[in-house]
Amino acid sequence: MSSLSLLLVLAVSGFFLLCAFKLIPVYSENQYIVSALQSLRDRDKTVDQMSPSEIHKHLQNFYTVNGVRSKGANNIVVERERNRSIITIYYEVKVPLFYNISVVLDFKNYMDSTKPDECCKAPVDYRPKAKKDD
């Protein structure tokens, strides 16, 4: 192997290692958010019986215990419909790689109280209702 090809292999390996070191913590933090949503189904009260403030408090406590620091994880939207509750946590994380190059990760976590075992990926066509300004 020539020195030029060795340098190229090292540069490519270094780039992928840099990406892994920057992105894996963000993905693991999202797994804690998914675990927080899943923990809602393991409570003595069902999600339909909990008020939105109780849901927020439970998720915040879970985040505190597990060290979730992402500001976007607090974008919790609780929608009530006739027979179900839908909890969504949509957020983006911008991770700077080097210089002026960044990666934006978009996470969409979703829980439907009628299908708690299918937590936490949103259906393709689902979007939360827009918040109305008072």
Automatic annotation (TrEMBL):
<dbReference type="Pfam" id="PF16137">
    <property type="entry name" value="DUF4845"/>
</dbReference>
<protein>
    <submittedName>
        <fullName>DUF4845 domain-containing protein</fullName>
    </submittedName>
</protein>
<dbReference type="InterPro" id="IPR032314">
    <property type="entry name" value="DUF4845"/>
</dbReference>
